[in-house]
Design a protein that fits this description.
Layout lengths: L1 E11 L4 E3 L11 H8 L3 E3 L7 H16 L8 E5 L10 H9 L6 E4 L5 H14 L5 E8 L12 H4 L5 E11 L9 E8 L7 E2 L14 H5 L6 E2 L1 H22 L9 E4 L4 H10 L11 H4 L6 H11 L8 E8 L3 E8 L1
Parallel strand pairs: 4-5, 4-6, 11-12
Antiparallel strand pairs: 1-7, 2-3, 6-7, 8-13, 9-10, 12-13
The structure holds oxa(dethia)-CoA.
Oxa(dethia)-CoA binds next to helix 1, helix 5 and helix 7.
Length: 336
């Protein structure tokens, strides 16, 4: 039976390391506040000449190399990002150009923190139906050019980092459903009633007569706005729900999962989710300390880091869940 295997991953973060203390020059914050409230110790921010598709390209090249496949074998590219190179066309088109694989479909997914799970799910459907055999799925974010790096934006600005993670997903004729490596299932949700709890209001067509509104620009409508407490409260509710949904769909229990790789928005969110299920600490793999929140890139970065740390090995059963702007949330279980 045709199922989807995660062949390999690759990541890229820009070289410029920004420690919590470095942010004190821009806003009234402290290493202590950021660590205590979020677990973040540092993040990487790209330079002015880098774009999201540049980060995506480097991650994609590493994933292809690790998967030992040539780019010409790809049937499709999916890029999840909320920080596109341009409003249109999609960042997947720019990545495709830089990677040098014209002709195959290139699709952008705009589901923010849940973008990678949505993208995995889309790729999984194309592969299971037999339409495509190999799909490059990338989560890439360049937040640093879009953050309000001053007192006004400090609650949001300290949370986000730049980076990209890519995975090569491939068709596999699965013979042993219990032991072979493949994606067991994906579960997707959204509730647009909460769209304005974490969003960038403009530029956009929802702002009156002109897409770009100068006076709103002066008020900073192009910077992200977040109701942090509402996001937090919903995340600690929806992520466990999504984990349970995935476990139930596959007749599995928490104890059956070898490793949990959750979205990295706040270490306290992940600790609370783990506590609700009594998951032992060593079974949860977090990267937020090192990279901060890279939105659509957190899950592939987590996978790749876990592989290199020796925490994720072939044959292990992994559960992932994510929650974020939209609100969107979702989960997946796969055998790596
Ligand atoms: O990927 C999904 C997207 N995002 C999330 O999931 C984020 C979810 N929310 C959160 O992680 C948390 O709500 C935050 C980390 C954003 C904030 O933590 P909190 O414990 O909810 O803090 P708070 O909103 O209660 O703020 C506490 C105080 C406030 O001061 P006062 O009013 O108590 O005097 C803030 O003004 O901390 C202040 N504050 C800061 N202080 C230093 C807010 N941002 C900062 C900052 N540095 N960067």
């Amino acid at each position: 039976m045709i199922r989807t295997e995660i062949l390999a991953t690759g990541i890229y973060v820009p070289p410029n390391l920004v420690k919590n203390d470095d942010l004190k020059e821009m806003m009234d914050t402290s290493d202590e506040w950021i660590r205590q409230r979020t677990g973040i110790e540092q993040r990487y921010w790209a330079d002015e000449n880098t774009s999201t598709s540049d980060l995506a390209l480097e991650a994609a090249k590493k994933a292809l190399e690790n998967a030992k496949i040539d780019k010409s074998e790809l049937d499709m590219i999916i890029v999840a990002t909320l920080s596109p190179d341009h409003e249109f066309p999609g960042t997947a088109c720019f990545l495709q150009k830089k990677l040098g694989v014209p002709g195959i479909p290139a699709l952008d997914v705009r589901q923010q923190c849940t973008g990678f799970i949505y993208s995995m799910s889309i790729a999984d459907q194309f592969i299971k139906t037999g339409m495509y055999k190999k799909i490059l799925v990338v989560g890439a974010e360049l937040h640093s050019k879009g953050l309000e790096k001053n007192q006004n934006g400090r609650e949001v600005a300290v949370l986000f980092g730049d980076g990209a993670g890519a995975a090569v997903l491939a068709a596999k004729d699965v013979k042993d459903l219990k032991n072979d490596s493949y994606i067991y299932s994906t579960h997707l949700h959204a509730d647009g009633n909460f769209a304005e709890e974490l969003w960038v209001p403009g530029p956009g067509t929802g702002n009156g007569p002109q897409r770009v509104n100068d006076s709103k620009m002066n008020e900073g409508y192009h910077f992200p706005k977040m109701n942090g407490k509402t996001v937090f409260m919903n995340a600690v509710k929806r992520m466990p729900e999504a984990v349970m949904e995935a476990l139930n769909a596959n007749g599995l229990k928490i104890e059956d999962i070898d490793l949990f790789i959750f979205h990295q928005a706040n270490l306290r969110i992940n600790d609370m989710v783990a506590k609700q299920f009594n998951i032992p600490e060593e079974k949860v793999f977090n990267t937020i300390q090192k990279f901060a929140n890279t939105t659509a890139a957190t899950l592939p970065i987590g996978m790749d880091e876990a592989v290199r740390a020796g925490k994720l090995k072939k044959g292990m059963l992994v559960a992932s869940a994510a929650f974020g702007s939209g609100f969107t949330w979702g989960s997946t279980i796969y055998r790596y």
